[in-house]
């Protein structure tokens, strides 16, 4: 009996592989994965005008009402397919492309979809809008025409022959073929009882959640979508339904009536907040999620929020909280007094000397930076000096040959310069800094050493500086640890506060940058440098996630530049190239590929920034 069952399973698996392979319309041997090209596609999308804060992620599969042949119906294939879409927040591309038998064509299709999405706007009519965007793209970049035609011709060879279709389907197919070859030539599509075969060169309407919003969930920070790192199957279609269940009564379950998990899953997160270990696996198998709020009265009980440590072990608050605005990109306005920032003094700030392992390096940095106190710099284009300014002389000679000669100095002269600058350093102390860099160090250890050596260097140079750390727990609790103010001296008390730093919570960058801008803006120095050390992108438990956090941080950086500050970000996040150019500009950040080198690189970067400004 066991042998018969095993034989049946073996025959079934062989038959499944055979019929699926015969019915498959893709070319797995030429498959191209989105993850291999995600970064280059994001850069291409933004370089051609796409929104900088828009996320690029994999598209989920959607239902297709196609006329399938016998093999497809037997194998159960071609019911769903991932289709490219673009809305105001996300650009979704198929996780894998195997549309063409040539891998180069599949890669070119990814590039085309990214270019098309960069020129796309709100979609009102699928066919007309895609034709208009295609026409605009080809008009703006004529060099793309041969590539587009090559994709179109390769795709048309794979589409169903209109002669083999029913009259209404054939008319629709001919119209779509003409729209692909001549964008803008088809204004109306013929009606058909069946959908046309998918067009991988066009964007499709984005799958939207139900329009009803839950303000309670948004305020408490619960999100109906999983984080990017945990969302393996892409976003799910969701519908909101009314739960008509009533308490009490007799429940009779007939197991033969439960055909599949996807028919009904009762997710009652209001009366029972326990975790189901199988929920993620079950949700991954579902095509559509139905969510409802169960209409039951909450039971009387005590709900404790253990988000913050007890007051006797927590850092010491300094004064009342500071109300700060926050940028809402959806409404394009600042929300005044939206964030509460609390200055905190580290409780573990007992005076401590510099660790012995850093003393040799600190002495070397002090000697190097002490030379900046009486730094002699070359002044160009001087009327007199000790050496000839070759660049000024060459400019003078070229202009004289062209008949336009402006008076200018042609000499170089060395002069003593006064370093009239102030620097404020913000260190990200979020919980992600508790991660290990190597077998011996964590990210927070690297940040402590970096702050210590940075302080030793600037103390040697005599520059005015301040040191702060920040983390957050929703918008009502943004914590700014005061390590050294502009008025305080850099001494053992500051060193002790730095060595007592511990990982905090989340990363609400915008509020920290705005408060640092106010503190640095009050300094009388002419040049003001705002440095930010971080290991990731802005995030928090509430709405401060994804594009919202990126846009708010970018707006805070723009506000700092308007006040004459020089914001610069130093990061160890290898994915920083996807979002930091949009937030700080192409030359407003640097990536430390080996985090353990941050303590050595930070003083060097400061010297380069202050010498070139």
Automatic annotation (TrEMBL):
What PROSITE patterns does the record point to?
Answer: VWFA
Q: Which InterPro entries match?
A: NorD/CobT, VWF_A, vWFA_dom_sf
- Which Gene3D superfamilies does the record match to this protein? von Willebrand factor, type A domain
Q: Which Pfam families match?
A: VWA
Region annotation (Disordered) ranges: 216-243
Domain of life the protein comes from: Bacteria
Matching SMART domains? VWA
Return the protein name. VWA domain-containing protein
Taxonomy, top ranks, is:
Bacteria, Pseudomonadati, Pseudomonadota, Gammaproteobacteria, Pseudomonadales
């Amino acid at each position: 009996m066991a042998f018969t069952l095993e034989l049946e399973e073996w025959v079934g698996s062989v038959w499944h592989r055979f019929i699926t392979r015969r019915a498959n319309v893709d070319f797995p041997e030429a498959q191209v994965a989105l993850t291999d090209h995600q970064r280059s596609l994001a850069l291409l999308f933004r370089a051609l005008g796409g929104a900088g804060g828009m996320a690029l992620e994999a598209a989920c599969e959607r239902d297709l009402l196609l006329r399938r042949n016998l093999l497809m119906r037997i194998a159960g294939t071609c019911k769903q397919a991932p289709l490219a879409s673009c809305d105001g927040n996300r650009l979704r591309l198929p996780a894998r492309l195997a549309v063409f038998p040539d891998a180069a064509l599949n890669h070119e299709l990814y590039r085309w979809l990214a270019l098309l999405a960069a020129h796309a706007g709100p979609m009102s009519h699928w066919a007309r809008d895609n034709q208009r965007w295609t026409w605009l793209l080809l008009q703006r970049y004529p060099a793309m025409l041969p590539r587009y035609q090559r994709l179109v011709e390769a795709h048309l060879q794979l589409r169903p022959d209109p002669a083999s279709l029913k009259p209404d389907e054939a008319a629709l197919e001919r119209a779509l073929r003409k729209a692909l070859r001549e964008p803008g030539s088809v204004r109306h599509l013929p009606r058909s009882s069946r959908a046309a075969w998918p067009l991988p060169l066009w964007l499709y309407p984005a799958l939207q959640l139900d329009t009803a919003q839950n303000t309670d969930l948004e305020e408490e920070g619960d999100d109906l979508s999983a984080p990017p790192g945990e969302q393996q199957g892409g976003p799910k279609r969701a519908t909101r339904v009314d739960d008509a269940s009533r308490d009490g009564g007799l429940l009779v379950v007939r197991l033969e009536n439960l055909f599949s998990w996807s028919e009904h899953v009762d997710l009652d997160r209001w009366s029972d907040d326990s975790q189901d270990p199988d929920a993620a696996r079950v949700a991954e198998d579902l095509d559509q999620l139905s969510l409802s709020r169960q209409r039951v009265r909450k039971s009387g009980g005590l709900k404790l929020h253990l988000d913050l440590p007890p007051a006797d072990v927590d850092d010491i608050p300094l004064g009342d909280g500071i109300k700060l605005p926050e940028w809402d990109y959806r409404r394009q306005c600042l929300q005044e007094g939206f964030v509460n920032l609390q200055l905190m003094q580290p409780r573990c700030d007992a005076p401590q000397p510099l660790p012995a392992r850093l003393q040799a390096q600190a002495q070397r940095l002090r000697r190097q930076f002490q030379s900046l106190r009486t730094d002699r710099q070359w002044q160009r284009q001087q009327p007199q000096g000790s050496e000839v300014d070759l660049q000024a002389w060459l400019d003078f000679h070229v202009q004289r040959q062209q008949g336009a000669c402006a008076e200018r100095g042609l000499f170089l002269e060395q002069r003593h310069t006064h370093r009239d600058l102030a620097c404020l350093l913000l260190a990200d102390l979020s919980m992600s800094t508790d991660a290990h860099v190597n077998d011996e160090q964590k990210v927070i250890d690297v940040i402590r050493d970096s702050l210590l050596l940075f302080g030793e260097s600037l103390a040697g140079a005599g520059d005015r500086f301040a040191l702060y750390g920040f983390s957050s727990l929703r918008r009502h609790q943004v914590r700014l640890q005061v390590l050294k103010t502009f008025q305080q001296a850099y001494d053992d008390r500051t060193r002790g506060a730095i060595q007592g730093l511990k990982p905090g919570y989340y990363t609400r960058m915008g509020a920290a940058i705005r408060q640092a801008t106010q503190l640095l803006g009050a300094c009388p120095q002419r040049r003001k440098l705002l440095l930010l050390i971080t290991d990731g992108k802005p995030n928090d438990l509430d709405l401060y996630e994804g594009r919202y956090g990126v846009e708010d941080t970018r707006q805070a950086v723009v506000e700092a530049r308007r006040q004459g500050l020089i914001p610069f970000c130093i990061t160890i996040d290898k994915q920083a190239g996807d979002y930091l150019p949009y937030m700080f500009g192409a030359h407003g950040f640097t990536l430390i590929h080996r985090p353990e080198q941050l303590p050595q690189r930070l003083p060097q970067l400061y010297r380069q920034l202050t010498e070139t400004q």
